Amino acid sequence: MLIRKPADHLPSDITSESVYFNRRAFMLGAAGLLLSAETLAGLNAKKSPLSQLAANDKPNSLKDITSYNNFYEFGTDKSDPAQNAGSLKTRPWSVLVDGEVAKPRRFAIEDLLKFPLEERVYRLRCVEGWSMVIPWVGFPLASLLKQMNPTSRAKYVSFETLQRPSEMPGQRTSVLEWPYREGLRIDEAMHPLTILAVGLYGNVLPNQNGAPIRLVVPWKYGFKSIKSIVRIRLQETMPATSWNLANAHEYGFYSNVNPEVDHPRWSQASERRIGEFFKRKTLPFNGYAEQVAGLYRGMDLRKNY
To answer: Does the reported pTM lie above 0.85?
Structure first.
């Protein structure tokens, strides 16, 4: 994992993918920066003390990240999102934050882009057994939720994806119950590793990767990181989630990466990093155990999968 925070000035150009690999001081975003529909501006930043956690993880190529996707709103094949997501209109866009909060509010995407942005290089582990390393741009979800003044009854956070079948052809099928829904416990949502991503690799977030704003929770299987969010609701009860509704036996609410708990139809002990031939061992909590294992102290992670 790599976390970098913003500095005080902007360079004039976007950093290309090739330059990115050679200049690890790259950073994106700044407080008050408004992202256009075409590009993000970049800036230099100091390394976080956590940056060494990803020292041996080279990010996947932009092509890998944008052409091999699960986003069932655009189809079930890995190539479908890249082929079909161009129809999605991401402006205007807003996100409603409500529920057990003192200050419910609807945020225009331009308001959310004013949060100080950080580069986060995270591992992504899919429940299907493949993985990537992705340089996201975003901000901690906690920084948004704290502004809402959650009440004492806010125990969980639910998320909802846009439902617009005219632009999301996969929603014209019954492969899942629409709109797509996900959820976290409040302490998971408030954890500093949990972010709302608005870009990757120096550009605005591509539609197939969840534009214009998505969740990223790096210690959980990828389907927990819901895309194209339009609603965030704080609530007292555990929210229903799409894959749990579809098949609770295979997809639990927590869905933490755990190599010791197999999927009913395949092992989770190893994974194939996209772009590599040989498999590698899967790490507990996707390699973030030191940071997040304490959230589950005393829990049976085989039962609470």
So the answer is: yes
